Each structure stands twice: as structure tokens, then as C-alpha cells.
Amino acid sequence: MWFNDYKADARRVYETLLGGGIGIIPTDVGYVILGVTAEAIWKIFRVKRRKPEKLNAMCGCLEMHRDLHLLDDDRRAVVSAIVGDADLPMGTVAPGRLDHPALASLDEDVLDQTTDEGTIAMLLNAGPLLDELARIAFADNRLVIGSSANISLRGVKFRADDIESEIREAADIVVDYGLSRWNRYGKSSTMIDVGRMRVVRYGSCFDLIDDLLARRFGISLPPDPSG
What we know:
227 residues; alpha/beta; DHBP synthase; ten-stranded mixed sheet; 9 helices
């Protein structure tokens, strides 16, 4: 049986990013474009035609969540239930440990685009390649910053072949694993501010996350206004 070599691919991508390059990789909620250096991150903004006031998100893993997010045990249990027990992806927002060496590795302007009133956002459990890449970088006290691999407002891409040519051409490495797992939602990740328990973005698997929160924690979220 054929399997993707996540560990080797993550190492190749990280070495490219560390050298100032840009990478495109698959996640369970669509393809993302990534950088580590300030030059690469701002190039991604330009090629995506992304508004400069838009905030960055980190590629995350559970080690990052434990070390960088400041949450009470009951809210950590919420995150663990969603991304662990239920195996669902989630953009996770929470107050951050802003003095951590990994955050200190970011240029000041990038750090400003990566924090919001003391909170930081990271994508958790969006596939083994993203997890491994985040883990490698975090062990090196670095952060991988990214966003969806598409021109802004043109929709998440769930196949590498669907990514606009100018986005692909900006990348120094592209990893293609075919169709993304949660493609049927047609959306990027659901993002929740776990500290304040509010929805930042309605996205993939919101229905499943909402149901889990209600059943296990008695937490009710406002319904998705898009229906």
C-alpha cells in the first residue's frame, strides 16, 4: 500500500522555508502557502493580494498549543476534545505566552500581524504533514506562518491543481497529496476564540464542533449565519 512520507516531506519543506523560501502544502481543510522569514511572509501577502491588516495564523501542533496558549484546564479540555478525541481541525485562538522564544524569533512587524490583543491563532489537527512541520519548527524555536493557497477572496483550494498559477509560481516547493479530507464543506477551518468561547470564523466541521461542545460541555455557539 502507498503512503505519503509526512516526516520526510515536512523536513524538506522546513529546510526550504528556513532558507527564506515559500512552500505550499496540503492540509485537511485545503492547501496552504507558508513562510518562516519576514521576506517570505510579506511576499505571500503581496502575491495573494491580501489586505495588510489581515492577521497571520500559525501552523500548530499540540506541543505549541500547550506551550504558547494560556488557558484554564476546562478550556484546554475543550481543545483536547475537539482536536484529539473527535479528530477535528480547528483554528484555535487564545491568549498567548508572548515572551516565548519562538515568538521572539519573529520580526517585529510580523509579530504585530500574528498577535491580536495578546491572543495568537494556530491551526490544529489539520493533517499529519502540517502537524509534523509545526513540530519540527517549534523544536527549533521557529514558527511557520501561513494562509490559504489562493488569491484572496477567491476561495480555498482543495486540490493542488486548482491553485492559481501565480500562487504556485511564488512557491519554492509544492507538496501535492491530492484532494483534501474535508473538501465537501468548501470552506477553510472553523476558528474559535477558546478563551472567550466565541466563533471567529465559521468553516469546515463547524456542525460537528458545535454538536460536541453542546453535548459534552453544555456550550452553545451562535448558529452559522450562512445556514
